[in-house]
Design brief:
Strand content: 35-45%
CATH architecture: Roll
Order of helices and strands: EHEEHEEEEH
Helix content: 25-40%
Radius of gyration: 15 Å
Low-confidence stretches: none
Number of strands: 7
CATH topology: PH-domain like
Number of helices: 3
CATH class: Mainly Beta
Number of domains: 1
Length: 131
Amino acid sequence: MLPPENVIAKKLATALLKDAELGDRTSRLVGAGGRIGAKATKMVMGGHWVGGTLYLTDECVEFHPNTLNKAVHKDPESLSVFIPLRGITGVEIRNSVGTPVLDVHTAIGTLSVRCLGATGFAKKIDAARAR
Protein backbone atom coordinates (compact mmCIF):
# COMPACT_ATOMS: atom_id res chain seq x y z
CA MET A 1 0.00 0.00 0.00
CA LEU A 2 1.28 3.43 -0.88
CA PRO A 3 1.55 6.11 1.80
CA PRO A 4 -1.46 8.42 1.94
CA GLU A 5 -1.42 11.84 0.29
CA ASN A 6 -1.28 15.11 2.27
CA VAL A 7 0.68 13.62 5.17
CA ILE A 8 1.03 16.09 8.05
CA ALA A 9 2.92 13.69 10.34
CA LYS A 10 3.90 10.03 10.54
CA LYS A 11 5.36 7.73 13.19
CA LEU A 12 6.55 4.17 13.39
CA ALA A 13 4.10 2.60 15.80
CA THR A 14 2.35 -0.52 17.03
CA ALA A 15 -1.43 -0.59 17.16
CA LEU A 16 -3.57 -2.81 19.38
CA LEU A 17 -5.93 -4.54 16.95
CA LYS A 18 -8.60 -6.81 18.36
CA ASP A 19 -9.24 -8.64 15.09
CA ALA A 20 -5.60 -9.44 14.23
CA GLU A 21 -4.97 -13.18 13.90
CA LEU A 22 -1.90 -15.15 12.89
CA GLY A 23 -2.01 -16.58 9.38
CA ASP A 24 -2.09 -20.32 8.74
CA ARG A 25 1.59 -20.56 7.73
CA THR A 26 2.64 -18.57 10.80
CA SER A 27 0.49 -20.75 13.06
CA ARG A 28 2.20 -23.88 11.73
CA LEU A 29 5.62 -22.27 12.08
CA VAL A 30 5.19 -21.24 15.74
CA GLY A 31 3.67 -24.58 16.73
CA ALA A 32 1.16 -25.37 19.44
CA GLY A 33 3.02 -23.42 22.13
CA GLY A 34 3.13 -20.29 19.98
CA ARG A 35 -0.58 -20.56 19.15
CA ILE A 36 -1.46 -20.97 22.83
CA GLY A 37 0.74 -18.00 23.72
CA ALA A 38 -0.81 -15.85 20.99
CA LYS A 39 -4.34 -16.71 22.16
CA ALA A 40 -3.45 -15.99 25.78
CA THR A 41 -1.87 -12.65 24.86
CA LYS A 42 -4.93 -11.69 22.82
CA MET A 43 -7.24 -12.55 25.72
CA VAL A 44 -5.21 -10.54 28.24
CA MET A 45 -4.42 -7.53 26.02
CA GLY A 46 -7.69 -7.44 24.07
CA GLY A 47 -5.89 -7.93 20.76
CA HIS A 48 -2.46 -8.17 19.19
CA TRP A 49 0.08 -5.36 18.92
CA VAL A 50 0.75 -4.95 15.21
CA GLY A 51 3.75 -2.99 13.94
CA GLY A 52 3.40 -0.42 11.21
CA THR A 53 3.13 3.29 10.49
CA LEU A 54 0.71 5.84 11.92
CA TYR A 55 -0.16 8.71 9.59
CA LEU A 56 -1.95 12.00 10.17
CA THR A 57 -3.37 13.58 7.02
CA ASP A 58 -5.57 16.61 6.58
CA GLU A 59 -8.60 14.29 6.60
CA CYS A 60 -7.86 11.35 8.88
CA VAL A 61 -5.61 9.31 11.15
CA GLU A 62 -4.44 6.13 9.43
CA PHE A 63 -2.55 3.07 10.60
CA HIS A 64 -1.02 0.64 8.12
CA PRO A 65 0.83 -2.58 9.07
CA ASN A 66 4.43 -3.07 8.01
CA THR A 67 5.55 -5.76 5.56
CA LEU A 68 6.41 -8.30 8.26
CA ASN A 69 3.00 -8.03 9.92
CA LYS A 70 1.25 -8.28 6.56
CA ALA A 71 3.13 -11.53 6.00
CA VAL A 72 2.39 -13.17 9.36
CA HIS A 73 -1.24 -12.14 9.92
CA LYS A 74 -4.47 -13.41 8.38
CA ASP A 75 -6.25 -10.94 6.09
CA PRO A 76 -3.54 -8.24 6.15
CA GLU A 77 -5.75 -5.66 4.43
CA SER A 78 -8.08 -5.71 7.45
CA LEU A 79 -5.21 -4.50 9.65
CA SER A 80 -5.30 -0.98 8.15
CA VAL A 81 -7.33 1.53 10.17
CA PHE A 82 -8.80 4.81 8.90
CA ILE A 83 -10.34 7.31 11.32
CA PRO A 84 -11.75 10.53 9.82
CA LEU A 85 -10.75 13.59 11.85
CA ARG A 86 -14.42 14.60 12.13
CA GLY A 87 -15.14 11.23 13.81
CA ILE A 88 -12.56 11.68 16.57
CA THR A 89 -14.15 12.54 19.90
CA GLY A 90 -10.92 12.84 21.87
CA VAL A 91 -7.22 12.06 22.04
CA GLU A 92 -5.31 11.12 25.18
CA ILE A 93 -1.93 9.81 26.26
CA ARG A 94 -1.48 6.97 28.76
CA ASN A 95 1.81 6.16 30.40
CA SER A 96 2.95 2.62 29.84
CA VAL A 97 6.05 0.47 30.08
CA GLY A 98 8.57 1.54 27.45
CA THR A 99 6.57 3.90 25.29
CA PRO A 100 3.44 5.95 25.94
CA VAL A 101 0.11 4.86 24.46
CA LEU A 102 -1.86 7.26 22.27
CA ASP A 103 -5.61 6.60 22.46
CA VAL A 104 -7.71 7.99 19.59
CA HIS A 105 -11.34 7.88 20.70
CA THR A 106 -14.38 7.75 18.42
CA ALA A 107 -18.07 7.14 19.04
CA ILE A 108 -17.63 3.46 18.11
CA GLY A 109 -14.32 2.62 19.77
CA THR A 110 -10.72 3.52 20.53
CA LEU A 111 -7.55 2.99 18.55
CA SER A 112 -4.62 2.47 20.94
CA VAL A 113 -1.17 3.06 19.46
CA ARG A 114 2.31 2.87 21.05
CA CYS A 115 4.93 5.22 19.64
CA LEU A 116 7.77 7.47 20.67
CA GLY A 117 6.67 11.11 20.58
CA ALA A 118 3.03 10.22 21.23
CA THR A 119 2.37 13.51 23.05
CA GLY A 120 3.54 15.59 20.10
CA PHE A 121 1.53 13.44 17.69
CA ALA A 122 -1.59 13.92 19.84
CA LYS A 123 -1.09 17.70 19.69
CA LYS A 124 -0.82 17.51 15.89
CA ILE A 125 -4.09 15.54 15.75
CA ASP A 126 -5.83 18.16 17.90
CA ALA A 127 -4.46 20.97 15.70
CA ALA A 128 -5.64 19.20 12.53
CA ARG A 129 -9.10 18.68 14.05
CA ALA A 130 -9.30 22.39 14.89
CA ARG A 131 -8.73 23.42 11.26
